[in-house]
Fold this protein.
Amino acid sequence: MEKTKAHPHIIGVAAGMTAGFVYAICAAAIIIWPTQALNFFNNWFHGIDLTKIARPMQLTFSNFIIGFLGIVLTFYFIGLIYSLIYNICYSHCKKNGVDLGRS
């Protein structure tokens, strides 16, 4: 398989959609299983007890939409920047004769 340059917009959209999907699943988990979800995410943060800073909050539709759009746009730009940097590295290696066909 020949390696090619990345398409920034496509990678940005894929990253944004992935983050949006994960955000929606997380929001559903918080609504359905608030204690278990908090305990699950508490295990991700080494040395930080999220139960001490968590506050009871009703997840409203507007809060969900604002958070959803925020994470989708953030990850779109992360994907965009990643692919732009990837393309710079790809061009540099190709120009310097690096074999890009190897994994």
